[in-house]
Design brief:
Elements: E1 2-8, E2 29-34, E3 37-41, H1 47-56, E4 61-66, H2 71-74, E5 89-94, H3 103-110, E6 126-131, E7 137-141, E8 144-151, E9 157-164, E10 167-172, H4 184-190, E11 195-199, H5 218-227, E12 232-236, H6 244-257, E13 261-263, E14 269-271
Parallel strand pairs: 3-4, 4-5, 5-6, 10-11, 11-12, 12-13
Antiparallel strand pairs: 1-2, 1-14, 2-3, 7-8, 8-9, 9-10
The chain binds zinc ion (2 copies).
Residues 68, 70, 153, 174, 214 line the site of one zinc ion.
């Protein structure tokens, strides 16, 4: 079993509305299941619904891998209820905040009066906070290897590649490309992967007026995936202003451009095995 499930697919800010029903309004959160192991990529608002499923299925152990700590990727974290249960185990990893004192310190500043009434140390399931340097490679659990790379984003971000049983899924958000200069770090990370989830915040038309904001386009994701021999690209981190009708046009254009393109929707699951 190797699967990737989308619980939140938006960037920037959650946008629940009648115009965001078909693709979803929650911010970045992905569940990766590898055998009996569960991993969460980012803790945007989508993590709240994931948390309910974890409680329903009594999932006891989880690793949370953070791309970075901008609000849209951590705003749901205090609402991940399994983290408050001392009978469960949670490990949190990040690759971009060593120079800020580490991920424990950074998250604790998010859960402090007068922003939030419950402190981080009430989350009794958390057994370990681990800071690595984006670019490191490590073994997460038996049979699960992780490679990482730094991304081009304000305050830094980490791209992940999770490998198991000869298959690989990559999570590459948030990142900005330089037109005409494919990101060599990303190409190295995604080489031959079965699935790449990629920051596709903007269209090619919108991109020039957002240079420096730290995001990319599905067209660039597709170019990178084709260069690196990737099988499937999940278009992700949708801009909140891209409502359902807009996204349907985008999906038609992207799927016509390459058969490997899929547009991530809340609730979508992609099996790799
Ligand atoms: Zn983001
Ligand atoms: Zn960001």
């Amino acid at each position: 079993m190797f699967s990737v499930k989308f619980w939140g697919v938006r960037g920037s800010i959650a946008c629940p509305s009648p115009e965001h029903v078909r693709y979803g309004g929650n911010t970045s959160c992905i569940e990766v299941t590898v055998g009996e192991h569960r991993f969460i990529l980012d803790a945007g608002t989508g993590i709240r619904n994931l948390s309910k499923e974890f409680l329903r299925n009594d999932v006891r152990t989880v690793h949370l891998l953070l791309s970075h700590t901008h609000w849209d990727h951590v705003i749901g974290f205090p609402f991940f209820r399994p983290a408050y249960d001392p009978k469960r185990r949670m490990h949190i990893l990040a690759g971009h905040v060593r120079h800020h004192g580490g991920i424990q310190k950074v998250l604790s500043k998010h859960m402090i009066s007068p922003f939030f009434p419950v402190p981080l140390d009430a989350m009794k399931a958390i057994r370990e906070f681990e800071d690595f340097e984006a670019g490191d490679t490590f073994r997460l659990c038996p049979g699960v290897n992780v490679r990482t790379t730094p991304l081009n984003h304000p305050d830094g971000a980490t791209g992940y590649r999770i490998e198991h049983g000869g298959k690989a899924a990559c999570y590459v958000t948030d990142t900005e490309h330089v037109p005409g200069q494919p990101d060599q770090n990303i190409l190295g990370l995604i080489e031959g992967a079965d699935l790449v989830v990629y920051d596709s915040s903007y269209t090619e038309e919108e991109f020039p007026s957002h240079v420096g904001w730290g995001h990319s386009t599905w067209n660039e994701g597709m170019r990178l995936c084709r260069m690196a021999g990737v099988k499937k690209l999940a278009i992700f981190h949708h801009e909140p202003d891209h409502e359902d009708a807009f996204m349907e046009n985008l999906e038609a254009e992207a799927t016509a451009a390459w058969e490997g393109n899929v547009v991530a929707r809340e609730g979508m699951e992609i099996r790799l095995d």
